[in-house]
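User: I've been trying to design a sequence by hand for this structure and keep getting stuck. Would you show me what you'd pick, starting by listing the structure so we're on the same page?

Assistant: Good idea, let's start from the same input. This is the structure you sent:
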C-alpha cells in the first residue's frame, strides 16, 4: 500500500508539472496583453505601463520567463498577481477554503443522495417510486447547471426571498457570534451546493441502481435470504458492499467534474472561491494566478483519485491497489 501511494505521488508530480508547463505556454502565446487594461486609462503614461511590464518580467523572452517561473515554483513561490498586486500565495490561501466548503458539501450531497436513491430504486424495482425516481434523475441530469442555478435564484431569492442569491455570507456579519455566522453561511451554501451536488447525484443514482440490481441477482444473495437473514441486513451488509465497488471509482472520477462545475457555480453565485478567481484571472490574463489555481486543482484531483483507489481496496480486501493499478 505505502509503495503504491509513493509511486502514484511521484507520477502525479510529473503529470502536474507537464500540465502547468502546457498551461504556461498557452497563456503566453494566446493573443492579448495583461497590461492592455492600463493603456486607455487617463493619468497612466506609456512609460508607467512599461515600468510595470518590466516589474512583472513581461518584457523578457517567454523561455526566460518560463525558467524563472520554474525556479520560483520549485521554492514554493507562486509569484505576484498582476491584477490584484498581491502575492498569489495569499490570494490562494484565502480562496481554497471557500472552494473546499462548497465542493465538500456538494460531494456529501452527491454521495448520500445518489447512493440512497439508487439503493431504494433497486430494492423497489418497477414500482411507482422507481419510475418517478428514474424520470426525476434523467430530468435533473439533463438540465444545464447554469440554467438550474439561475432558476433557483429567480424562485428562491427574487420571488420568495427566503435564500440569499450571492456571496458566502451577508454584509455586516463580521462581528456576529459563531452560531449566527454558521447559520448565515449555511443559508448561502444551500443553492450552490444543491446545483453542484444534487443535480450530479441523479447520475450517481442511476449507476448505483444498476450496480445493485446486478448484485441482487447473485447466488450468495439468494443464499443469505434463504438462511432467514433480514432484508435490511442482506441489502446493507451483503449487497451494498459489493455494489459500491464500481461506484467508488465513479466518485473518484467525479471530483474533477465537481471542481470544474464549481467554476461556473462560483461565478453565478459570486462565491469567493478558486473557480471565480480563475475566471477573473483568465479575463485579466493574470498568469501567476491561473497557474497557481491549476496547480491546486490538480493536487485536489489526484488526491481524490488516490482516496478512491484506497477506498476500493478497503471495501473488498481481496483487491489490492497494487494489482488494480497494473
Amino acid at each position: 500500500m505505502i509503495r503504491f501511494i509513493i509511486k502514484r505521488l511521484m507520477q502525479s508530480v510529473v503529470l502536474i508539472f507537464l500540465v502547468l508547463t502546457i498551461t504556461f505556454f498557452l497563456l503566453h502565446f494566446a493573443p492579448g496583453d495583461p497590461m492592455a487594461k492600463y493603456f486607455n486609462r487617463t493619468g497612466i503614461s506609456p512609460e508607467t505601463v512599461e515600468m510595470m511590464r518590466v516589474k512583472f518580467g513581461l518584457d523578457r523572452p517567454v523561455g526566460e520567463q518560463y525558467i524563472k517561473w520554474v525556479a520560483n515554483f520549485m521554492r514554493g513561490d507562486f509569484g505576484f498577481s498582476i491584477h490584484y498586486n498581491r502575492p498569489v500565495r495569499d490570494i490562494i490561501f484565502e480562496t481554497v477554503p471557500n472552494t473546499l466548503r462548497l465542493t465538500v458539501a456538494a460531494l456529501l450531497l452527491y454521495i448520500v443522495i445518489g447512493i440512497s436513491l439508487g439503493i431504494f430504486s433497486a430494492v423497489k424495482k418497477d414500482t411507482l417510486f422507481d419510475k418517478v425516481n428514474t424520470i426525476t434523475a434523467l430530468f435533473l441530469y439533463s438540465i444545464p447547471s447554469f440554467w438550474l442555478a439561475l432558476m433557483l435564484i429567480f424562485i428562491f431569492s427574487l420571488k420568495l426571498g427566503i435564500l440569499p442569491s450571492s456571496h458566502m455570507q451577508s454584509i455586516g456579519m463580521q462581528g456576529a457570534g459563531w452560531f449566527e455566522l454558521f447559520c448565515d453561511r449555511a443559508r448561502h451554501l444551500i443553492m450552490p451546493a444543491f446545483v453542484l451536488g444534487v443535480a450530479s447525484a441523479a447520475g450517481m443514482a442511476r449507476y448505483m441502481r444498476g450496480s445493485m440490481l446486478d448484485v441482487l441477482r447473485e447466488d450468495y444473495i439468494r443464499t443469505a435470504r434463504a438462511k432467514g437473514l433480514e432484508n435490511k441486513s442482506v441489502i446493507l451488509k451483503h449487497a451494498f458492499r459489493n455494489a459500491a465497488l464500481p461506484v467508488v471509482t465513479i466518485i473518484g472520477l467525479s471530483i474533477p467534474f465537481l471542481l470544474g462545475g464549481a467554476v461556473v457555480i462560483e461565478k453565478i453565485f459570486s462565491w469567493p472561491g478558486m473557480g471565480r478567481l480563475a475566471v477573473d484571472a483568465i479575463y485579466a490574463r493574470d498568469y501567476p494566478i491561473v497557474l497557481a489555481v491549476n496547480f491546486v486543482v490538480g493536487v485536489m484531483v489526484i488526491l481524490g483519485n488516490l482516496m478512491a483507489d484506497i477506498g476500493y481496496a478497503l471495501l473488498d480486501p481481496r483487491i489490492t491497489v497494487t494489482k488494480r493499478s497494473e
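That's my pick for every position. To get oriented when you compare it with your attempt: The domain at 88-325 is CATH 1.10.3720.10 (MetI-like fold). Residues 121 and 129 are 7 Å apart (CA to CA).
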